[in-house]
């Protein structure tokens, strides 16, 4: 009987500890947000992230709080001799947290580490064809999002994406869109939406536009979207997310239904920021 009571007490304690974890995390985040945003970080935003100046004041304030929490919770790791600095942390965090504005967020809960290479990096990839034959090859990448809690970025391309915020190409937005997609399982172009009923319109609109991009890519017809988005639905979502933030006016004019879907998902309308 005593053994059963002890087991019950341990079980109840474990349940209480787990249930209170989110409360402790929220309390800590509130404490982080109460701290003043460092002056040196503001200078980094001005120098490295001109997009920030185009945003409404309320979203600027919101973004700064997100940056503070993101940097507090995520580990940055320099690769190939790159030393991690506040410049790297703030520049990456500012772009990653754009995707969290105006929405209830748990700050990419699956993400633990951001690995930063000085330049584009080489990865060994393995593929199995329809006959079961395995092949190995090397690929040069600018960024990569893993489902096991890591994002890998090229610092050179991160800087380039931040410096030109209206060219429709941003490796940080791309990879962190994948992270949103991976919050509910393997990336498939269907991140967690607000309501179950939203998935029908999402699937219909994105499916139709994805097929259109595949056709454009196969026929070399000019498109607002990078042809890389025709690879699969996950890459399509990441590519159109880049375009949504960096070319919203052209996006809304040429693909109004798709723009509306992303506007509802991100709870933003960046047309008015530009």
UniProtKB/TrEMBL annotation:
InterPro entries the UniProt entry points to: MetalloPept_cat_dom_sf, MtfA_fam, MtfA_N
Membrane spanning residue stretches: none
Pfam families (UniProt xref): Peptidase_M90
UniProt cross-references to SUPFAM superfamilies, sorted A to Z: Metalloproteases ('zincins'), catalytic domain (SSF55486)
Name of the protein described by the UniProt record: Zinc-dependent peptidase
Natural source organism: Shewanella aestuarii
């Amino acid at each position: 009987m005593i053994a059963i009571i002890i087991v019950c007490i341990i079980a109840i304690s474990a349940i209480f500890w787990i249930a209170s974890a989110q409360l402790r995390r929220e309390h800590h985040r509130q404490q982080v947000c109460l701290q003043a945003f460092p002056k040196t970080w503001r200078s980094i935003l001005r120098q490295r992230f001109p997009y920030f100046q185009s945003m409404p004041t309320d979203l600027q304030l919101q973004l700064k709080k997100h940056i503070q929490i993101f940097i507090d919770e995520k580990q940055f790791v320099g690769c190939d001799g790159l030393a991690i600095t506040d410049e790297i942390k703030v520049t990456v965090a500012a772009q990653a947290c754009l995707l969290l504005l105006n929405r209830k967020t748990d700050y990419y809960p699956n993400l633990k580490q951001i690995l930063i290479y000085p330049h584009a990096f080489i990865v060994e990839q393995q593929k199995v064809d329809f006959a079961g034959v395995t092949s190995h090859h090397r690929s040069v990448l600018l960024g990569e999002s893993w489902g096991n809690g890591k994002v890998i970025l090229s610092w050179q391309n991160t800087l380039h994406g931040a410096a030109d915020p209206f060219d429709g190409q941003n490796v940080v937005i791309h990879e962190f869109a994948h992270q949103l997609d991976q919050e509910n399982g393997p990336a498939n172009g269907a991140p967690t939406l607000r309501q179950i009923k939203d998935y029908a319109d999402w699937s219909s609109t994105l499916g139709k536009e994805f097929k259109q991009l595949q056709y454009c890519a196969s026929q070399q017809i000019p498109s607002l979207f990078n042809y890389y988005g025709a690879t699969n639905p996950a890459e399509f979502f990441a590519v159109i997310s880049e375009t949504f933030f960096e070319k919203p006016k052209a996006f809304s004019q040429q693909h109004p239904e798709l723009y509306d879907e992303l506007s509802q998902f991100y709870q933003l309308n960046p047309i008015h920021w530009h």
